[in-house]
Amino acid sequence: MIARYAIPFFLIMGLVVVPLLLVLLCRWLLPKRHWRKGAIVCTLVVWALVLFGHFVGYQELEVHRYDFVSADVPQAFDGYRIVQFSDAHVGTMTGSRQWLLQRAVDSINALKPDVIVFTGDLQNLHPEELEEHQAVLRQLRAKDGVISVLGNHDYPTYLDCDEATKEDLLRQTIDFERALGWKLLLNEHRIIRRDSDSIVIAGMENWGKPKRMPRRGDVAKTLAGLSPDSCPFIIMLQHDPTAWEEKILPECEAQLTLSGHTHGGQFKLFGWSPASLSYKEWNDWAYKDDRALFVSTGLGALIPFRLGIQGEIVQITLKRRS
């Protein structure tokens, strides 16, 4: 229901409701001889921004490259390339928009990653959205494969149905990702080895600070069986960045956490985004001593609109500090 009406709701709000509110505001604040001109200008500006963000901004894609330097990076993993993408929301990339997903997959493969990580929200609301994108998603290639976690939209939290139906829908989403050959981690981890060295890629289920979000993430379960001596470098995948301060920092020693979820607010003007009202860490890097969080602004969105904050693919290269 939400997905079906999200785009019409957005367009009505952007093209009708907000302009009407601005007209009323102009009539109230501006002198009588000027308020009509002011209202026309404001309306045209809002229409231009909404239409640009919908038809142009949503289609923009950037590839960002970073190094993560740590003394804990094992020697054999110096130069190891991780490519992260997040928040694909492929249910919005249907029909004439599927080329956007194909472009993203081609861009990821062109980076020749050692591993690809997906940090959640593959679908909008329902696993039936996924099937038409199977052939494109199967094209992803990396030496150590694709490792993924679930995001809040990958759970049936927002659907109005009984618990048995919700569990069946969740199982369909899980089965779809695993059928792609992805290594979906549900409070689990995977050890990647190079010669005698190794790193851990751990995947928590979604944990969001707001109570309306799924809270299935369990740090202890995710890292069960590991010891700092046997594997000193941990990359944690967690869809929601609020879990970094609330759960990950106090409960484990993971040096690098990769998240998404916020979409960067899908709007940024003069450096400000509405995401900053809800999230302390809403894009880019955050640090705590020698530990770091990277929050991707994501690839897609439930509502096809972005203005000033493009979709992104991220390459993070591990570097050993000597």
Overview of the structural elements:
The protein is of the alpha/beta class and 322 residues long. Helices cover 30% and strands 20% of the residues. The protein is built from 7 helices and 12 strands. The protein has helices at 2-29, 35-55, 98-110, 134-137, 163-179, 219-222, 242-251; strands spanning 61-70, 81-85, 115-118, 146-148, 183-184, 188-194, 197-203, 234-237, 256-259, 284-288, 291-295, 311-320. The protein has a 6-stranded mixed beta sheet with strand order 1-12-2-3-4-5, with helices on one face. Strand 2, helix 3 and strand 3 form a beta-alpha-beta unit. Helix 1 (2-29) runs antiparallel to helix 2. It is globular, with a radius of gyration of 21 Å.
Helix content: 25-40%
Taken as a percent bin, the fraction of beta residues is 15-25%
Give the total of beta strands: 12
Number of helices: 7
The description of the largest β-sheet is:
6 strands, mixed
Compute the gyration radius: what is it? 21 Å
Mean pLDDT: 93
Q: State the oligomer.
A: single chain
Q: Regions with pLDDT < 50 over 5+ consecutive residues?
A: none
Biggest sheet, spatial arrangement of strands: 1-12-2-3-4-5
Helix and strand content put the structural class at: alpha/beta
What's the helix-strand series?
HHEEHEHEHEEEHEHEEEE
Distance from first to last alpha carbon: 54 Å
Q: State the shape.
A: globular
